[in-house]
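#structure-requests
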Amino acid sequence: MTLFTPEDLLRYLYKESSPELTVAIDAALKEDWMLREKLEVLRSSTDELDKVTVAPRMEVIMRVMDYARRTAVQEPTVSHH
């Protein structure tokens, strides 16, 4: 029985594992129900992580916009003579 690290299983889940590792995990999953359970727990955890979205607070956006207004460079007016 080959022991796989959580990192190995995450790489497998995200299809970032080497071809050799993928083949080894596929083979082990057919034989090892505990490995299937671990993979399923990781899969459900990563499904939740994949749904996480991050956005700045409105206060932060307003501060940035205010800073931009205060520090904006005025365009020189072009006069046509």
